[in-house]
Design a protein that fits this description.
The complex is a heterodimer. Chain A has 12 helices and no strands. By secondary structure, chain A is mostly helical. By secondary structure, chain B is mainly alpha-helical. Chain B has 2 domains: 30 residues, no CATH class; 222 residues, MetI-like (MetI-like fold), CATH 1.10.3720.10. A two-stranded antiparallel ribbon of chain B has the order 1-2. The longest helix of chain B has 37 residues. The two termini of chain B are 29 Å apart. Classes of the chains: A mainly alpha, B mainly alpha.
Chain lengths: 283, 312
C-alpha cells in the first residue's frame, strides 16, 4: 500500500510538472520577447529559449509610439469594462433575487432562456447594430461608441452574472428575509442591509467576471467600434497593431497591461474554486 | 479549502422543504396549488423582467433583422445570398469550424479534468501549480494569439528552436491541417483554465469517504472514476459544454490573428464579407447558417442531459 501511494505521488508530480510547463511556456515566450532586444527574439530565425540579455527599451517605446494609440484604447477599454461590470450588477442583482424566489422549476427555465439567447453569434447581433449607427452617422461619436460597445458586450456576460449571483441568493436560508421583515425592516432595508451584504462575495465575483470578459471581448468591439485607434477598445487596437506593423511593442505593452489582470485572475480563482461557477445549479 | 457550495445548498434546500411543509404562506418551493404559486412567481418575475427584456430585445431584434436581410438580394427576395456563398468558401469554413470546435472542446474537457483532479489533491506545490495554470485566463485572446504565432512560425520560431535540438524543423503553416492544429492548441491553452475551475466545483463536492468505501468494496481506480467522479461532475460538464461549445463555434479573434482568412472559419468568412462592402449580403447569410449550427448544437447538449439536470 505504501509503495503504491509513492508511485501515485510520483505520477501526480510528473503530470503536474508537464501541465505546468505547457501552460507556462507561452508566458515565458511573452517574457522573452518583451524584455529582450528584437534581434534576439522576433527577428531571430531560431530565437533562444533562455533569457540572454535584458532590456526595458521595448517597454519604454511601447508607451511612446505610435501616437499613444495603445494607451488611449487601453483607457477606453477600462471605461467599457467598468460600464459592463456595473450594468451587469444593476440588471443581475434584481434578476437573481427574483429568480431565487421563484420555484426552481420555473427559474431554471428562465436561466436556460438567458443562456440560449446568449448563443446568438456575436457577429449576428453586432452587424445590425453597427449598420444602424452608420445610418444614423453616430458611429464616430466617442461616448456613444463606449456605451454601445458596453451594451452589446453586456449580452455576453449577463447570463453568467445572473447565474453566479443567483447561486449566492439560493445559498442563503430562505427564512432570513422573513425574519428581518417580522423584526420591522421594510423591504428596502432588508434588501440593502441584509441580502446584499450577505451576498457580497457572489456579487464581487460576478462583477469581476463581467469586467474580465469585457476586457478580452473582441467580436462586438471590432464591428461596433470603428477601427481607428482613437476610437476603439484595447483588443481591437492590439489586433490592428499586431497584424500591421508594431507587433513587438504592442505585445510588450499588452504584457505589462496584463499583469494586473493576471493578479485579478489568481485572486478570482480562490472564489471560482469555491464553486461560484456552479452556484445556481442545484435549485 | 472552501466549502463545496453545491452540497451546501442542497442541505439548505432539503431543510427548507421540511420547514416549508409547515408554513402556510411560503409556497415558493412547494406550490400547494399552481394558481397561488403563479401569482407569487409573477410578482418575483418582475424583478427578473429588466434582464430578460434587455437580452431578448438586444439579441432577438437584431437577429430577426439579419435573418430577414439574408434573403434580400438587390432589393428583391431571393436565395442568392445563400447560393452565392458556396463560391465564397462556405464548405471549407463550415468544416474547419466544426473540426476546431469539436476538437478543441474534447481536448479542453479532457485536460481540464486532469488539471482539476491535480488541483484537488493535497501536495507540496499545489499553490504554484494552480497559479501557473490559471494565468492564461488573465491573458487576452489577441495577445495569446500573437504569442502562438511567434511559437508556431512558418520558418523558425520558438517551437522549432526546441525541435531543432533533435534535428527536426516543422513548417507549421505548410498545410491547413497543421494551421487548424495550432488554432486548436492556442484555444485549448487559453480556455482550459476556466473549464478546470468549473469542474473543480464538482470534484470538491465528492466526499473522500465515498472513494474509501468504494475501494473497500473492491472498486478499482477506473470503476471509482466511472461511478463516483463522472456522475458528480456530469452536470458541470453540461454547463461547460454549453458555455464553451457556443464560444467555440464563435471563434474569431484567434484564427484572425493566427492564420488570417485562410483556412477560413465561419466568423472570419462573415467578417471578410462584411468588410468588403459589395458582399454584405453574404455576411448575413453566413451569419444565419452559423446561428442555425449553434442552435442545433445547443439543442443536442440540452437534450443529452444538460437540460434535465440543469432545469429539473
Amino acid at each position: 500500500m505504501q509503495s503504491k501511494n509513492k508511485i501515485g505521488m510520483i505520477l501526480l508530480y510528473i503530470a503536474a510538472i508537464i501541465l505546468a510547463v505547457v501552460f507556462f511556456f507561452p508566458i515565458w515566450i511573452l517574457i522573452l520577447t518583451s524584455f529582450q532586444p528584437s534581434n534576439l527574439s522576433v527577428y531571430a530565425k531560431y530565437p533562444s529559449l533562455i533569457l540572454q540579455s535584458f532590456t526595458l527599451s521595448n517597454v519604454i517605446s511601447s508607451f511612446k509610439t505610435p501616437s499613444n494609440g495603445l494607451v488611449g484604447s487601453l483607457l477606453r477599454s477600462l471605461e467599457v469594462a467598468f460600464i459592463v461590470g456595473f450594468l451587469s450588477l444593476g440588471l443581475a442583482i434584481p434578476a437573481s433575487y427574483g429568480l431565487s424566489k421563484i420555484s426552481a422549476r420555473i427559474s431554471n427555465k428562465i436561466i436556460v432562456l438567458l443562456f440560449l439567447v446568449n448563443m446568438m453569434p456575436g457577429l449576428v447581433i453586432a452587424i445590425p447594430i453597427a449598420s444602424d449607427f452608420i445610418r444614423l452617422g453616430i458611429q464616430n461619436t466617442s461616448p456613444f461608441v463606449v456605451f454601445s460597445v458596453a451594451f452589446a458586450q453586456e449580452l455576453v456576460v449577463l447570463p453568467l452574472t445572473v447565474f453566479v449571483i443567483l447561486g449566492g441568493f439560493r445559498s442563503l436560508p430562505k427564512d432570513l428575509e422573513n425574519q428581518a421583515r417580522v423584526d420591522g425592516a421594510n423591504f428596502r432595508t432588508a434588501f440593502a442591509r441584509l441580502l446584499i451584504p450577505l451576498n457580497k462575495i457572489a456579487i464581487l465575483v460576478a462583477f469581476l467576471l463581467a469586467w474580465m470578459t469585457s476586457w478580452d471581448e473582441f467580436t462586438y468591439a471590432v464591428i461596433v467600434a470603428p477601427i481607428a485607434p482613437s476610437n476603439t477598445t484595447f483588443p481591437v487596437t492590439l489586433q490592428n497593431y499586431v497584424s500591421y506593423g508594431y507587433p513587438l511593442i504592442s505585445a510588450t505593452f499588452a504584457l505589462v497591461a496584463s499583469v494586473p489582470v493576471i493578479i485579478l485572475a489568481v485572486f478570482l480563482m480562490k472564489y471560482l474554486k469555491g464553486g461560484y461557477l456552479s452556484g445556481g445549479l442545484i435549485g | 479549502m472552501a466549502t463545496p457550495r453545491g452540497l451546501q445548498m442542497f442541505k439548505y434546500d432539503s431543510l427548507n422543504k421540511v420547514v416549508m411543509l409547515n408554513t402556510a404562506n411560503d409556497n415558493t418551493m412547494l406550490p400547494r396549488s399552481d394558481r397561488i404559486a403563479l401569482k407569487q412567481n409573477l410578482l418575483y418575475f418582475l424583478f427578473a423582467l429588466p434582464a430578460v427584456v434587455y437580452v431578448i430585445s438586444l439579441s432577438f431584434y437584431p437577429a430577426i433583422n439579419v435573418v430577414y436581410d439574408s434573403f434580400i438580394f438587390k432589393d428583391k427576395f431571393s436565395l442568392s445570398n445563400y447560393t452565392g456563398l458556396v463560391g465564397e468558401n462556405l464548405y471549407p469554413a463550415l468544416i474547419d469550424t466544426l473540426i476546431v470546435s469539436v476538437g478543441a472542446l474534447l481536448i479542453q474537457l479532457m485536460f481540464a479534468l486532469a488539471v482539476a483532479m491535480i488541483m484537488i489533491k493535497p501536495f507540496k506545490g499545489n499553490r504554484i501549480f494552480s497559479t501557473i495554470v490559471i494565468i492564461p485566463f488573465g491573458i487576452s485572446t489577441v495577445v495569446s494569439a500573437w504569442v502562438f504565432s511567434e511559437i508556431f512560425s512558418a520558418i523558425g520560431g520558438y517551437a522549432n528552436s526546441f525541435l531543432i535540438l533533435f534535428g527536426i524543423t516543422v513548417n507549421w503553416h505548410a498545410t491547413s491541417t497543421s494551421e487548424l492544429g495550432i488554432v486548436m492548441f492556442s484555444d485549448f491553452w487559453k480556455n482550459t483554465p476556466l473549464i478546470a475551475l468549473i469542474l473543480f466545483g464538482g470534484l470538491s463536492s465528492i466526499s473522500p469517504s465515498m472513494y474509501e468505501a468504494a475501494s473497500v468494496d473492491g472498486a478499482g481506480p477506473f470503476k471509482r472514476f466511472l461511478h463516483i467522479t463522472l456522475p458528480a461532475i456530469a452536470p458541470l460538464m453540461g454547463i461547460a459544454l454549453l458555455i464553451r461549445g457556443v464560444a467555440e463555434f464563435n471563434i474569431f479573434a484567434l484564427p484572425l490573428v493566427l492564420v488570417g482568412y485562410s483556412p477560413p472559419f465561419m466568423n472570419t468568412l462573415i467578417y471578410s464579407n462584411y468588410e468588403s462592402v459589395l458582399n454584405v449580403g453574404f455576411a448575413y447569410s453566413a451569419s444565419v447558417i452559423l446561428l442555425v449550427i449553434i442552435m442545433i448544437y445547443a439543442a443536442i447538449v440540452l437534450a443529452l442531459g444538460g437540460a434535465p439536470k440543469y432545469a429539473k
